[in-house]
């Protein structure tokens, strides 16, 4: 199964066009990842906005994902084949994949035979969409267990945000996404929010003792302006060495000198690393549309989107700290508004820092090669 972010699909194949259109628009505005429609609606959806489109159809469909099984063996319209290799569905799937199409198998889990059929589809499809009768957790658990080593995403059919929450957490990993069948705009928003929360991971933060802090002259520093509003305690992990990154606080705090800018992290000098998911990037590489990792004082992570990067010449300050025997450094702008996070989880200005103070950092073992962790020895000074 995939380790990608959890995805939210909106089922919009029933009712009149106005009803279907409202579902699609609510999905678009809420941040859903995909809509499932009938093949004749694909072009209409593309006029409403930019979103992945899955459609019930055949090899001529122009959808991003072609869904097979509805009106056939997947929903019981045709009997299940005694020999899976000779089924109607597998023939169509092979044709679609030969044409370079992404394919989803659609299965209504009526009994154990249909559960087994879903597993077989999951072994050859890119996605398998499972619709439970009265929504059952056990078949989903079985599918997750049986397909965990396959390159397939399980999309579980749900009707409420509560069902979505259970599906996304089943067997710890959960399904890769949910197909929401609801007309309620609030349910759509709640379900998207649940998916976002289910993707929050944590990074370990460690107290480090300040051992040195001093001005180092003029240099180029980077402000990362995101498309996200950050709160007290949130910022980005930045450092001059990959083995140790400092939690640099956002400008969400009010200041007597400038208005708060809760979308901004004044992150440091152009050479510094910034954590982006499981990798690091140089601050100077970031540009509009890139992803960055936002971290709070408890280590909770979420994804932010870069809206703008500002590189300007400013006075800089070296900050050095020690944690678990490791000495780490970063270089930040020398200004009152630039803050780290102390061991009490409060923002503290670099202008107020002194030797012996404790701030939060993230330590890593090993090294990085082009931003990716590798097990090798490296010396950074």
Comma- or semicolon-separated keywords:
alpha/beta; TIM Barrel; 2 domains; 8-stranded parallel barrel; 7 helices; DHQS_C; DHQS/DOIS_N; NAD
Describe the structure.
- The protein has helices at about 15-30, 40-50, 90-100, 110-120, 135-145, 160-170, 185-200, and strands at about 5-10, 35-40, 50-55, 65-70, 100-110, 125-130, 155-160, 175-180, 205-225, 235-240, 245-250, 265-270, 275, 280, 290-295, 300-325, 325-335, 340, 345-350, 360-365, 365-370, 370-375.
- The strands form four sheets. Strands 9, 10, 11, 12, 13, 14, 15, 16, 17 and 20 form a ten-stranded antiparallel beta sheet that branches. The chain has an eight-stranded parallel β-barrel with strand order 1-2-3-4-5-6-7-8, surrounded by seven helices. Strands 18-19 form a two-stranded antiparallel ribbon.
- With about 375 residues, it is an alpha/beta fold.
- The model has no long low-confidence stretch (mean pLDDT about 85).
- Helices cover about 20% and strands about 40% of the residues.
- The chain contains seven helices and 22 strands.
């Amino acid at each position: 199964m995939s380790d990608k972010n959890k995805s939210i699909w909106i089922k919009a194949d029933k009712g009149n066009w106005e009803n279907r259109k409202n579902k699609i628009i609510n999905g678009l505005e809420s941040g859903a990842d995909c809509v499932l429609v009938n093949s004749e609606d694909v072009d209409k959806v593309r006029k409403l906005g930019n979103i992945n489109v899955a459609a019930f159809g055949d090899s001529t469909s122009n959808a991003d994902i072609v869904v097979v099984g509805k009106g056939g063996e997947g929903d019981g319209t045709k009997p299940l084949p005694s020999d899976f290799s000779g089924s109607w569905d597998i023939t169509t799937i092979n044709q679609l994949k030969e044409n370079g199409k992404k394919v989803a198998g659609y299965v209504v889990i009526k009994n154990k035979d249909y559960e087994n059929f879903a597993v077989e589809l999951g072994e050859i499809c890119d996605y398998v969409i499972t619709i439970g009768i009265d929504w059952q957790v056990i078949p989903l658990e079985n599918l997750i267990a049986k397909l965990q080593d396959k390159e397939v995403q399980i999309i579980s059919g749900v009707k409420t945000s509560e069902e979505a929450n259970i599906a996304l957490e089943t067997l710890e990993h959960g399904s890769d996404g949910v197909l929401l069948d609801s007309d309620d705009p609030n349910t759509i928003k709640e379900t998207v929010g649940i998916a976002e929360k289910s993707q929050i991971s944590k990074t370990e933060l460690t107290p480090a003792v300040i051992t040195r802090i001093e001005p180092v002259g003029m240099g180029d520093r980077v402000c990362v302006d995101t498309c996200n509003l950050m709160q007290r305690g949130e910022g980005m992990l930045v450092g001059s060495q990959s083995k140790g990154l400092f939690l640099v606080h956002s400008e969400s705090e009010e200041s007597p000198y400038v208005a708060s800018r809760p979308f901004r992290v004044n992150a440091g000098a152009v050479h510094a690393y910034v954590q982006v998911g499981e990798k690091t990037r140089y601050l100077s590489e970031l540009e509009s549309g890139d992803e960055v990792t936002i971290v709070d004082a408890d280590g909770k992570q979420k994804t932010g989107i870069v809206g703008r990067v500002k590189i300007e010449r400013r006075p800089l300050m070296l900050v050095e700290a020690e944690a678990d025997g490791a000495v780490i450094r970063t270089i930040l702008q020398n200004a009152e508004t630039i803050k780290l996070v102390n061991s009490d989880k409060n923002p503290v200005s670099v202008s107020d820092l002194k030797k012996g103070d404790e701030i939060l950092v993230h330590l890593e073992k090993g090294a990085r090669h082009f931003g990716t962790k590798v097990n090798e020895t490296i010396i950074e000074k």
